[in-house]
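Design review, sub-item: ligand-bound model
Attendees: FS, YL, KQ
YL presented the inputs for the zinc ion complex:
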Amino acid sequence: MSAKFKSFMAALAAAAGIAASPSPGDAQSPAADQAAWAAACTDWDEWDKPAPPYRIHGNSYYVGTCGIAAILVVGDGGLLLFDSGTEAGSEVVTANIAALGYSISDVKALFVSHDHFDHVGGMARMQQLSGATVYAGWGASAVIRSGEADPRDPQAGMHPPMAPVASVRSVRDGEAASMFGIDLQAIATPGHTPGAMSWSWQSCDGDDCATIVYADSLSPVSRDDYRFSDHPDYLAAYRAGLAKLGSLECDIVLTPHPSASDMRKRMLSKQGLRSSDGCKAYAKSIGKRLDKRLAKERK
Ligand SMILES: [Zn+2]
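KQ shared the predicted structure:
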């Protein structure tokens, strides 16, 4: 564990004053919640379309829209929120947190998957509403602070700027921390953007514990004049991140675009969201997309 990250967390816990544990909302059974979500949304649905919140497992909830994920983890004395959705989508996320019986003011830490407006365009609003610190990958934190794209981003210049975020802390690959009783790990998975992070934590329902991995988008998408093959170091880091992701302990994989890891299909399947090879399968599918993209660049 990095001492630096650990000290951030200690400072955060002290600043937060550790309120009493938020009381659980009147959640239905996970199966009923998930059926309601699957009925309200389609695969690759619209980014800002409201979706009902549902319990993923234990203390972890999906509070995003139909098309963009946001994950709420209920810790001991504080909530953690991963991603905000777009600026408009963040209003859906806030409403979903309220529907679960919590408040955005209970959110004590905010986390970034990758620095694009569809996932964190609402982060400035969430930060203002909660007063929480935003944690982002080392290479993404400058983007979150300024709202301006990283020039190394394969999609730089394609997206509108985002509202700048006031309180951002950089996190490095492999850093781990216990935050409000949640053991959290940061896994750098660059590729879609240089500073992209995947996040992993344990979620328990009594004795039934599951390792949840919120794996970043990782799709090899770019503006027209960008070639991944022109950036060998970037490509090597991309491959290394995929290899790491594929070898993680991972009971439930979730992704910023839920359909990138077939969330709805899994919810509707007999097996449900849980799968011992979810991260492996996801990393493999992205690796194939990257191979295809590189083959296309050679033509
Ligand atoms: Zn993106």
